[in-house]
Amino acid sequence: MPERCAVCGQVFEIEPGFFLAALWISYPLVLGFEMAVLITCYLVLNYSLLLSFLIAATFLLVLTPPVMRYSRSVLIHLFVSFDENRSGE
Ligand SMILES: [Zn+2]
Fold this sequence. Notes:
Bound molecules: zinc ion
Radius of gyration: 18 Å
């Protein structure tokens, strides 16, 4: 992850451990998605419970990096407002 935004120069690591709070955003996202996958596989597609869990685990492994990045983006949007007229601090 870059130290500063290439467009506006915003420092991303606002304080040490700032992005640990992104876990509180990624957790409900992942939980909701995993539940949707499990319910779809087990109840809608009638796969076995084991196969449903394996499919959900595969989705979890593949989606962890993008979900982590998305969560960080959501977190920094909660704390920092972007002003397109103010750039290159
Ligand atoms: Zn920026």
